[in-house]
């Protein structure tokens, strides 16, 4: 199997983590942002990543990939078996996608787009040298597209920060005294929350080599949450559950 990804993407990390959790062999394939649209739309209905290419089909979206893996590889399940618990875990995951995953992307891009070398590393990591050399040709247009599609405006980024701060406070209350978000075991809800916040906690177990985040509002944002209880929980989830497939 092949997994089409943006190397730094927290939504792609959800899919990578699920595959590794299942001990499923796959090849992560980094694709050019912007130029990926033509490739992906030949395989799936939308242009978004990740996309898992299997012998049977192309599965698009991190949540859908987890659904597929739990059906095809039932060992080490991520989705609770009982119907009520299953519904709750999936609802939590979907809510966190919108309340954490979307805002943190908006917050970080609002600052890091002014640091093209760091953005280049994010998108071209693990690509062959000749592809990395081609990246500067698309970089100016890509910056405009990312700002228009994700950041939108300074006001929108400020609203995203407010949403993010509120959700982190709610998550801290939910996790108070608990090891996991839902029930007594690691589920897709925990995987989703930790993967989506990997851009904040920067855990060493993440497959992307973050390096130093440039001095910027993004670094200030990350440092402000360094000792937050949810950030500590994310690092614990990575340390205890994020192991590469063998």
Summarize the structure in words.
With 246 residues, this protein is mainly α. It has 2 domains: 2-72, Glutaredoxin; 83-241, Glutathione S-transferase Yfyf (Class Pi), Chain A, domain 2 (Up-down Bundle). Helices cover 60% and strands 6% of the residues. It has 11 helices and 4 strands. The two termini are 15 Å apart. 35% of the residues are buried. The mean pLDDT is 94.
Widest sheet: strand order?
2-1-3-4
* % residues in beta strands: 5-15%
Taking all Cα atoms into account, the compactness measure Rg is: 18 Å
The 3D shape can be described as: globular
What is the CATH class of the largest domain? Answer: Mainly Alpha
- Uncertain residue segments: none
Most strands sheet: 4 strands, mixed
Overall number of structural domains: 2
- Examine the coordinates and then state which fold CATH places here, giving the name of the CATH topology of the largest domain: Glutathione S-transferase Yfyf (Class Pi), Chain A, domain 2
What is the number of helical segments per DSSP (H or I, 4+ residues)?
11
CATH architecture group name of the largest domain = Up-down Bundle
Strand count:
4
Topology:
Layout: E1 2-5, H1 10-21, E2 27-30, H2 36-41, E3 51-53, E4 58-60, H3 62-72, H4 83-112, H5 116-124, H6 129-151, H7 154-175, H8 188-196, H9 198-201, H10 217-224, H11 229-241
Parallel strand pairs: 1-2
Antiparallel strand pairs: 1-3, 3-4
Summarize the structure.
The chain has 246 residues and is mainly alpha-helical.
